[in-house]
Amino acid sequence: MLVVYTGGTFGMVYDAKSKALIPFDFSQVLELVPEILRLDINIKFISLPTVIDSSDMNPEIWGQMAQIIFENYYLYDGFVVLHGTDTMAYSASALSFMLQNLDKPVIFTGAQLPIGVARTDARENLMTSLELAAAQENGRPAVPEVAIYFNAQLLRGNRAKKKESSQLNAFRSENYPVLAEAGVTIEFNWPYIKKHVDSAPFQINTRFDTRVGILKLFPGIGRAVVRAVLETPGLRGVILETFGAGNAPTEPWFLEEIALAIGRGTVLFNVSQCDGGRVTQGYYQTSRFLGEVGVVSGGDITLEAAITKLMFCLGQNTDNEVVKALLVSTIVGELT
Ligand code: ASP
Hints:
Layout: E1 2-7, E2 12-15, E3 20-23, H1 29-32, E4 44-52, H2 59-72, E5 79-82, H3 88-98, E6 99-100, E7 106-109, H4 122-134, E8 136-137, E9 140-141, E10 146-150, E11 153-156, E12 161-162, E13 171-172, E14 180-182, E15 186-188, E16 203-204, E17 212-216, H5 223-230, E18 237-242, H6 252-263, E19 267-272, H7 285-293, E20 296-297, H8 303-316, H9 320-328
Parallel strand pairs: 1-4, 1-5, 5-7, 7-10, 17-18, 18-19, 19-20
Antiparallel strand pairs: 2-3, 6-16, 8-9, 10-11, 11-14, 12-13, 14-15
The structure holds aspartic acid.
Aspartic acid is lined by residues 7-9, 53-55, 84-86, 110, 112.
């Protein structure tokens, strides 16, 4: 098993000088979790060149993580990525697109309390993630996909969202069932876990295009704000974070700005501000125009999966029609 340490609260210590939590040297982890040695799993730890608070995460570091997994893919049965919770859902989504034809577990986990704190959740999250990454079913890895394990639940990585910053149950997946629950035993939800693919070889594709943006709508949003986002020089794709089932204002100036952006060749992707349910363009009159003018419906995708998918699809293609076709189809189970 390869454990990739990227930073986050999991391995942080209190720095008296800055009076804040900062990442620490992970070589001390075995002193803090000696019970790891009792697991019947051969574990190797590796750290990113620079460990970070996950608020500093970016596509280049996603590429480094993907590269580590690629280089070690045939040496290990599974991978555990220790990551800050703040952007874990973005990273898990990004890696789900970067790691193509993945047939082994990549389990992201972290903690709400640093590992050195007596009540920490880091220990259980790490121990169970290791068990999940090592779990086999019919002689093959039980979870051959990118997932997040946190607070007794295993979630599909590109379906999860950080929903809680103080309770220990930090993550939820509103539109896709839990993949496994860890109680006295680990109960797998087999119908919802990705099936093995034997045909294609594992490969990575780390080309992401960051010329993207997110325009979150709110009642009272003004034309200047909409323009400032949509007219950003070089922008190739924007997520429109809409209301409810994908609805937006019907004021003529708003519709005009949307049509102008599409006319300039910007891909617009409609993702709801609601965590549960799905975007259905045309269900209400307030979303019909979006579909008519060429805004792409995000269905039940999360914002985290949507922005990483947009970066991925734009990174692979220059033809907007190909990008749009990819956005509405499921690449790695990110939408229903
Ligand atoms: N700020 C931290 C991070 O995301 C929070 C955490 O790890 O839970 O790196």
